[in-house]
Amino acid sequence: MNVTSEANAQADAAPAAPPEPLSPFDDAPLTFTVAGQHFTRGERVIVTVCLAPDHSIASADIFESSGDSKFDQLAVMWARRVRLRAVAQGEQIATCGAVRVEVRPAQEPRVFRPPEDSLS
């Protein structure tokens, strides 16, 4: 048997790695608007959120702090509101995941105009 045949035989015999578990969070972004609180633009916190066996949120802890303890506390509270992924029977999901909470500039109000009426 030559080297190429041995490598092919080993590759065929190796079991396939199991797929990575899905994120525990829904893919839809979650945005919070904070009235009355003013934080620095660009301020961010990474919160690790872990699930309990019943698929509820078991814990939320700071993984990367913003340096502002008040913002960090609010970020943990907001991260606990993240939408969880709907789990199909037998589907594997990760038990923990990272939630990024970030201060972004407010969007300017959008003005929607009705379509032009050709009869007027």
Notes on the structure:
The protein is of the alpha+beta class. It has a three-stranded antiparallel β-sheet. The model has no long low-confidence stretch (mean pLDDT 76). It is 18% helix and 19% strand. A hairpin with a 5-residue loop joins strand 1 and strand 2. The chain starts with a helix and ends in an 18-residue tail after the last strand.
Proportion of residues in extended strands: 15-25%
| Structure classification | alpha+beta
Please give the alpha-carbon distance between the first and last residues. 86 Å
Q: Segments where pLDDT lies below 50 for 5+ residues? A: none
The number of helical segments is 2
Strand and helix layout:
Elements: H1 3-13, E1 44-51, E2 57-64, H2 69-79, E3 96-102
Antiparallel strand pairs: 1-2, 1-3
Short description:
With 120 residues, the protein is of the alpha+beta class. The protein has helices at residues 3-13, 69-79, and strands at residues 44-51, 57-64, 96-102.
Supply the key terms.
120 residues, 3 strands, three-stranded antiparallel sheet, single chain, 19% strand, elongated, alpha+beta
